[in-house]
Amino acid sequence: MTGVLLAIGAPAHAASAHAAPAPTSSVDVIEVSGRIDPIVADFVVDSLRAAERDHSEALVIQVDSPGDLLSTGQLNVLTATLAGASVPVAVWVGATGSRAYGGAARIADVAGVVGIAPGSHIGQCPSCRVRPGLRTTRSLSAGQAVVRKTADLISPTIGDFIVDLDGRTVNGHVLQTARVVQRGGQPRRAPSVDVQFAKLSLVPRLLHTVASPSVAYLLLMAGMVLIIFEFFTVGIGLAGGAGAGFGVLAAYGLAVLPTRPFAVGLLALGMVGFGIDVQTGAPRVWTGIGTAAVLAGTWLLYDGVPLPLVTAVLTLLGVALFMLAAMPSVVRARFSTPTIGRESMVGEVGQATAALDPDGMVRVREALWQARTNRATPIASGDAVRVVGVEGLVLQVEPAASDAAAGPDAKA
Q1: Rounded to 5 degrees, what angle do the CA atoms 79, 305, 36 make?
Q2: Using one digit for the tens of pLDDT, what is the confidence trace for 42-69?
Q3: Quick one: pLDDT band at residue 394, thresholds 50, 70, 90?
Q4: Pick the CATH number of 2-202 from 3.90.226.10, 3.30.420.10, 3.20.20.70, 3.90.79.10
Q5: What is the dihedral angle through the alpha carbons of 94, 98, 100, 104, rounded to the nearest 10 degrees?
Q6: Using one digit for the tens of pLDDT, what is the confidence trace for 356-386?
Q7: Least confidently predicted of 135-139, 263-267, 277-281, 359-363
Q8: How far apart are CA 151 and CA 108, in angstroms?
Q9: Which of 118, 167, 266, 356 has the fewest Cβ atoms within 10 angstroms?
């Protein structure tokens, strides 16, 4: 956005730098994107107070929002604060392709000047009162908004909008945001004010992102899957910690969003169902119950806020593939007898704990093993044995005493 302003003002400034006075006022521009939640509402109010304190020429709110997550009381307080501001408030719905619906349209409703970029839309706000054209359930294009006096002007860029504010009167104050300069003998308008852009800082931006329907749902599902995964792994590792972290973030997002608690319960039931059949090693009844519960929980999770279909489908496919394909392998690895390094047992000496005739049990390396001897004479319980081979989980052994006795003869 700063580049846009420089593109508008730099050529004119180069032509008349010797005559143009230094800017004495500023316009504050804040960006509001996504659904307007309490964090964004506080950000708007704080920015307004800062603009009033600095005696800014105007506060411009750049909007791209499908609605709000505020209670009626919170939204009324926000709009009343903007309407009663001592500094002019202007709203620009942009850039191209942006929208201002619901609570975002309420903010535009109380603004002194409203601009809209070509290709953007505004409306879906039956509760709007100041601008009658906004009192509709429809979405209005830029042209329709100007015709219905929902918007005051069409401005392709934020720089154009700031220049177009010049000369407009808001609450008795005439805005002065542009000057005329000469370039190549042609007059041209350029910004005459400093423009200061502001966005949410890192932590509020993270919490605002978490409170979006898609992100909160993804975090919830990922957290539950990782916690289930942790139950089938050895010890407490990264999966459990990451799952807990995702769960905390998801809890915040779901608390801000209009969430149905029973739908969250259905999602949890679905994860438990998957986990039960993962333990048994094959998809059975609980897999069907889990699938149905997850589908229902996803469909009913939010009240009045749509969850994007692409997000839901991809997440459900990912969960199903992980639970039905990856998790059984994890369980087999977790609960199977270790096999790595078993060949290194060849040559080890142990003791028969039961007679081998030809099969029995031996103790080697302080562990019990199934064993078999190919000797015609059985090995009695308590005899020393030596491992001569490994076949799967069965050790091939022979009497250790006979080799020990034969050793000296062989050397002789």
Answers
A1: 30
A2: 999 999 999 999 999 999 999 999 999 9
A3: confident
A4: 3.90.226.10
A5: -70
A6: 888 888 998 888 888 888 777 788 888 999 9
A7: 277-281
A8: 9
A9: 167
Q: Please state, in angstroms and rounded to a whole number, the distance separating the CA atoms of residues 142 and 163.
A: 18
pLDDT tens profile 125-159? 999 989 988 999 999 999 999 999 999 999 999 99
CA distances to 156, 210, 239, 244, 365 from 236, rounded to whole Å, are 54, 26, 8, 12, 28
Residue 385 DSSP code: E
Instruction: Pick the closest to residue 157 from 215, 100, 98 (CA basis).
Output: 98
Q: What Å distances lie between residue 59 and 30, 87, 105, 188, CA to CA?
A: 8, 7, 17, 24
Q: What is the DSSP letter of 259?
A: B
Residue carrying structure tokens 């349209």: 105
CA-wise closest residue to 182 among 26, 19, 4: 19
Query: Which pLDDT score is estimated for 370?
Result: 83
pTM of the entire structure? 0.73
Q: Is the pLDDT of residue 409 over 70?
A: no
Spell out the alpha helix ranges (H) of 17-134.
Answer: 38-53, 72-83, 103-110
CATH superfamily to which 342-411 belongs: Nucleic acid-binding proteins (2.40.50.140)
CA distance 263 to 241: 24
- Exposure string for 25-36, b = 16+ CB within 10 A, e = fewer: ebbbbbbbbbbb
Domain boundaries, the chain: 2-202, 211-335, 342-411
